Amino acid sequence: MAENQSMKNQDSSDEIDLGQLFQLIGKGFDSLFKLILRVFVYLKRNIFILIGLAAVGFAVGYGLNQIVSKRQKTDVIVKPQLESKNYLYDVIDEIQANIDAKDSSFFESIGIEEVDFAGLEITVNRVIEEGASDRDMQYLELLQSFENTDAIADIVRAELENKSSFNHRITFYYKNEELGVQFAKKVMEYINSSTYFDEVLTISRNNARGRIEQNELLLDQVDKIITNYTNNLASRNNAVSSERIILDNQEQVNIADLFEYKNLLIRDIEIKKLELAEQTEPISIINFGKSHEVQKSFFGKNLVLIPSILIVVFLFVSFLVYLNQKSKTLIL
């Protein structure tokens, strides 16, 4: 009997707990509905005020857009040569510091006679590019598997520098389009006026020309060896022969390695010619963009920002008034 009585009390307790739980859920939904209803009533009561504030805000924003001159910018995509990236960032910081100080004498010294400092700014950032493809990585691994010669080492180094180097975007901000574009051109001339990097570029270009001439001589010799090998095969009536070539000093050379060496020489010549084309200035200009207006984000535009501020201020003031009314009803 005692056990039956205990089980009945437990079932009754569970029913009470479930009932209380459903009541709490019902009260929660009721409170949420009342909150939504109060917000609806508040908006209904103040709808004309909110519409009026939005209209005033749009009008003020439109007026400011007509009065305030819009900011423009020019983007210049560049590629530093011969590890001149740090130099690029340092000289950009130097120019920006002189802009902040409004140092007209500095800009006169680099050929800029008239500077409009209103809204003038210069920044530099790295251009994010896609990573190296699997094919490029396989090519580098193939190069490393060959004998460690100077030519192969130079090719691997050039490929690694090409894959690890990034283009950079120099952005000029200004309000006067004519003066701003002229300012950007003069600054780029100043950046590329480094005497040190000019000397290094000259030496690098001379080295590249010498390497091309040397590789072309070696390539001619390799072609002669391959031609002789082909002629010997033809004279033997296409008979099966060894895959190795015996040179005059009795040294044997694998014909497959000879073809690979020829391809490496061709690749090295291509790289050096590309260096000659690219390394004309310390900071190569890939693209000098046109002047265009700075596009602001949606909430950064006056037509949206000012109405939003007016409405938020009104809602905040209404909330303070509500809190003040509630505080008067408290019994201290």
Explain what you see.
With 332 residues, the protein is of the alpha+beta class. It contains nine helices and seven strands; from the N terminus they run H-E-H-H-E-H-H-E-H-H-E-E-H-E-E-H. A hairpin with a 5-residue loop joins strand 4 and strand 5. The longest helix is centred in the first third of the chain and has 66 residues. The model has no long low-confidence stretch (mean pLDDT 77).
List keywords for this structure.
332 residues; elongated; 67% helix; alpha+beta; 9 helices; two-stranded antiparallel sheet
Domains, number? 2
The major pleated sheet works out as: 5 strands, antiparallel
What's the end-to-end separation, in Å?
A: 56 Å
Number of helical elements? 9
What integer value in Å does the Rg equal? 38 Å
Low-confidence stretches: none
SSE-based structural type: alpha+beta
Oligomer: single chain
What characteristic shape results from the CA principal axes?
elongated
Helix-residue proportion: 55-70%
Work out the strand percent: 5-15%
Keywords: Membrane, Transmembrane, Transmembrane helix
